[in-house]
Amino acid sequence: MILDLFAGPGGWSRALGILGVRDVGLEWDEWACKTRAAAGQLTIRTDVAMYPTEPFIGRTSGLIASPPCQAWSMAGKRLGLVDQPLVHAAVKDLAAGRDTRERLLAACRDERSLLAAEPMRYLYALNTVSEPEWVAMEEVPDVLPLWKQYAAVLRGWGFSVWCGILNAADFGVPQTRRRAILLASRVRTAQPPTPTYSQVEEPESLFGPGRARWVSMAEALGWGATDRPVPTVCAGGGPGGGPEPFPSGSRKTLSDARERGTWVSQPDGVVLQSRREGAGWAARHGTREDRAATAAPTFTAEAHRWSWSLRSNNQTNATVRPLSEPAGTLFFGHRANECTWVAQPVSAPANDTDAPAVPDRIRITAREAGLLQTFPADYPWQGNKSQQFSQIGNAIPPRLAAHLLAPHLNVHLSLDDFTLAA
C-alpha cells in the first residue's frame, strides 16, 4: 500500500488518483475525513502520533507525509521554530529506536511542533523489512533543516535522497506557493521534477520546447482578466464564522451586473451594502428608494471598468496579485488570513457621481480557493466555510503532488491530466 500520514482533505490522494493508484490516509480532523470519504478516498480516522506502526510493516511500498504546518507557518505564531531543537532531538532518537516523544513534548511551546517528527517513527519501523521503496514529504519552507536531518538518516539506510524548496507555480499551480520537499528512493536516483512553467514564457530552442508562462488565476478560474468575482450567499456566516459579506439576494444582482468587468446599473437600483459597512454607507450612496427614484444611467466598458486582484490576507503586508498572475500563498484557518477580491478602477468618466457602488472587497469562495489549489471545481468539501477553508489552506496542491509522485510510480504525467477551470 501507499501510506499517507496527515492525509488532510486529499491533496496527495487526488494526485494519486490522477496517476491511477490509491493510498490509505491517516487523518484526525473530522471534516477532512468527511471530505475524503465524499471523494471516495480510503481513510483511517486516527491520531497519527498514537496509531501503531505494526499494521503497515511488510505491506508498504510508499510513504507520504505532510505534517501539520500551523506551528511553523508564517500565517501563525511560528512556535515551531522555537521548538525546532526539540523536534530534531525527537527525530534523532526515533531514528535510533528510542521513543522520547513524551518527555520532549512536555517541553514544546506548541504541541503540534513534534508532529513533524512522526514520519520518522513510521520510517524506522518500516525499515526493519526494507520498506518503503520511496518517500515523499512536504512542509513549509522553514522545515527544510529538518528535512535535511531526515535525508541524512535515509541515506544511511540506503536511500537516494533530494530535498529542497520548490515553487508550485513552476508546475502549473496558479499560486506562488513555496514548499520544502523531500524525495527519497531505494531503486532510483532521487531528484526534483522538471519545472513545466516559468515566470516568463520561454521560446522553443535547440534543447527542446520552451516552458509556458505561469498559470494565472484568471485561467484557473475560467475568467477573463477583468471578470467580476461573485460572492456566494448562503447561511452559516463567513470563513471565520462572521456575517456574510453581502445580504441575501445580492448574488443575483451582482451576477446580472457582471459583463467582463463592465457594470450596468439595474432599473431597480444596485444595492451592494455590506453588513460591515455600517450606516455610513447609506449616507454616502443613498438608500434603495433614493436610487430607484433616480434615472439609472448605463455605463459601458469604456466608461467604467474595474480590474480585480486577490489579497492574500487582512494584514498590512498581504500579497496582492491581479487576476492575470498566479495568487500568492493561500493561508486560511484564521480570521486574519481571509483572502479577498479587491476592485481597482481602471477608468471612469469625470465627475462620475452616479456610478454603481463597487464593494471594496469580496471574500474568495471555497470553490475558487480549491481551484487555485488545483482541486476540481466539484471537489466535495465538507463542513462549514471555516472548516472548508482550513482544509484547503493546509492541503498540498494536487498538481504539484502529481509531479512529485509520478517518477516513483513510473507514470508519465501529461499537462492535460489536470483541468483547472470548469
Automatic annotation (TrEMBL):
It is an enzyme of class 2 (transferase). The lineage of its organism: Bacteria, Bacillati, Actinomycetota, Actinomycetes, Kitasatosporales. This is DNA (cytosine-5-)-methyltransferase. Belongs to the class I-like SAM-binding methyltransferase superfamily. C5-methyltransferase family. One of its GO terms (molecular function) is DNA (cytosine-5-)-methyltransferase activity. Its EC number is 2.1.1.37. The keyword Transferase applies. It comes from the Bacteria. Residues 234-261 are annotated as: Disordered.
